[in-house]
GNAT family N-acetyltransferase
Amino acid sequence: MPTVRVVTERDVDQLVESVTNLFRDDAGQFDPLTDTSWPQREGHARYSALVSDPDWLLLLAYDDGGRLIGHLVGRVNEPGSTRPHRSAVLESIYIWADIRSQGVGALLTTRFLDWAREQNAVFASVSAYAANEKAQRFYQRQGFASQSVMLQTVL
């Protein structure tokens, strides 16, 4: 059974490793305009600053042998003038390829949604590349439904 724990300052390098894999595998495949070197360059400073921020949830998943197998990063947003409800955003999730379809992503997502409810979020959102149909199917199985579509053109 995998274990999930909240990231501490000593875990930030492992989080950056997992986020690096996400950028390489996801943006590297589906979005050639994304700078996939961002995690190595700025990830440690970014996530170190978020470790103690109560509006952010940083999780790492490990297999029975203690090997890192994935992460989740989520946040809550305060109400705004056009959306007068607290919301949660699943910023990123990544599971090692050899572990996928074994429930780790669902475990991380459940922890995120439970946390979002505890933070009094009214809804949660996540985005996925249009071409990443596997990710979209995964999110739909977790209860997410399409709400809008963003269209883009490269200039």
